[in-house]
Amino acid sequence: MNELDEVSPETTRPWHPRWGSRIGASFFVQQAFPWLRNYFGDAPLHSTLSSSLDGIVSWGGRLPAKTAIRIARLRGLPHWHLEDGFLRSVGLGKEGSVPISIVIDDKALPVEAGRASRLELLIAEAGRAEFTNTGATIREALVANKLSKYNSLPHHSPRIERTNRRRVLLVDQVYGDVSVAKALGSPASFHRMLDDALASGAQCVVRTHPDVIAGHRRGYMTERAAKTPGIILMADKVSAASILEIVDEVWTVSSQMGFDALLRGLPVRCYATPFYAGWGLTDDRSGKASQSTLRRRSGARPTLDQLTFAALSLYPVYRHPETWVRLDTLAAIEYLVKEIAQTRREA
User: Which domain of life does the protein's organism represent (predicted)?
Assistant: First the structure.
């Protein structure tokens, strides 16, 4: 029995649209994600105002998504939130790379903490089930192959002076990142994280986006960190796995880097409430805004491998980006490893 069979023998999960449903989506979604129809039965996506729809989907949390949600509510139609899976592709989406997985959520976006997403319910359920062995296999395969959400950057160690102090990685994010507010974080969360790091006596490394360093985008704390003595700014174009190999601990607001760190056994401190926080696996410093979420999640205490299974097997849908055949998580990992090797041979 493979991990797909453990979930359901059906093509889709019970909370997904029925295969072949007549699905409405915004013009933005139809134009930006022409491959998306392959996740719903190969029928074209329709306008959100079309007749006889079985439901409406939206992507992400910006204005087109909010509009689609309102239309679904006004029309009394089911609605599903869509996003990239946590294991996406070799290249970036903005460069045209088609994802190997997406998530389909009938409750909320996976980054939302203010209400329970389907992902949150699955993590709580996994904490009461026997998914540890499969979760461990997935986690070990990801770590062994140095995979993350995106996998185009090379693996080589960043050049940072090593001292005898504990090295803490602080993850900055691009200003306006939807996941910050959805995870009940704010600009103040980043400044509190930096203040705590400076007071800790650790060697503080701020991971910032290369576009922020180049002045094309704003970060939440990069500008302040650049003016603060003793802070090391790192914008090296290297893989997440390479960075995590040289740090002792990771502090974040809502970045997936925190999840990547957990998978590798690193201590993780959270200053908001991403999906992997609040389960007893992280040091949660999210403040008053997240207290109700933390209480809600406190009833389940999944192991790391159970959380891994929920987030990387129970929740996403994997499909081969060319044939659109359904894949399980381990087959998706194998595909990405081969694609990475092929990309490097062609470089």
Answer: Bacteria
**pTM for the whole structure:** 0.93
Give residue-wise pLDDT tens across range 107-149.
999 999 999 999 999 999 998 777 778 999 999 999 999 999 9
Q: What angle do CA 139, 241, 279 make, to 5 degrees?
A: 50
Q: Return d(Cα 93, Cα 99) in angstroms, integer.
A: 7
Q: Write 36-42 long-range contacts (CB < 8 A, 24+).
A: 36/82, 36/102, 38/319, 38/324, 39/102, 39/104, 39/317, 39/319, 42/324
Task: Give tens-digit pLDDT for 165-207.
Answer: 999 999 999 999 999 999 999 999 999 999 999 999 999 999 9
Q: Any idea how long the chain is?
A: 347
Helix/strand/coil (H, E, C) string of the chain?
A: CCHHHHHCCCCCCCCCCCCCCCEECCHHHHHHCHHHHHHCCCCCCECCCCCCCCEEEEECCCHHHHHHHHHHHHHCCCEEEEEECCCCECCCHHHCCCCCEEEEECCCCCCCCCCCCHHHHHHHHHCCCCCHHHHHHHHHHHHHCCCCCECCCCCCCCCCCCCCCCEEEEECCECCCHHHHHCCCCHHHHHHHHHHHHHHCCEEEEECCHHHHCCCCCECCHHHHHCCCCEEEECCCCCHHHHHCCCCEEEECCCCHHHHHHHCCCCEEECCCCCCCCCCCCEECCCHHHHHHHHHHCCCCCCHHHHHHHHHHHCEEEECCCCCCEECHHHHHHHHHHHHHHHHHHC
